[in-house]
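input
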Amino acid sequence: MEDCMSQEHSNRSQGQAHSRVFLLSLLVALALLTVGCKKDPRVEFIQGEWFYKDAHLANIPSESAQTTNWVFDHGYFSMNSCCFYEAYFSGNYYVSDRQENELTLELISLKGQYGGTVLFKDDAMTIVIKIDPEADTIKVSNDGPYARISPISP
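output
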């Protein structure tokens, strides 16, 4: 009988130890998830629709200015540009590098056209976005500055 009581106490102690280990593991996992979910203010800043008009062609008869729109929506993007040079494409993006006021985005799963080139889902591009939070503008691969048209909610 004493053997059974000792074994029951041993099983209970092991169960409590397993519960403590599980609880500690769960707390560590939750802490890591919380840190991993911290939003990058630079990534949050670029969310929304951006517009740029390059008027360098406006003084040439029968030519119009180049207008370009970029939309960044939490991993999805689209770009439309008209009228001297036409481009329209969309896809997904992820951040591959972060600097103080700069993000490098890898554009993937592309669909659309860039000039005379048709883009396919296996194509990829890299763009660098320079952020000016004081002016509420961005430059996309040294093109711009783009003015914010509308933000995207989180």
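quick obs: The first strand starts at residue 48 and ends at 54.
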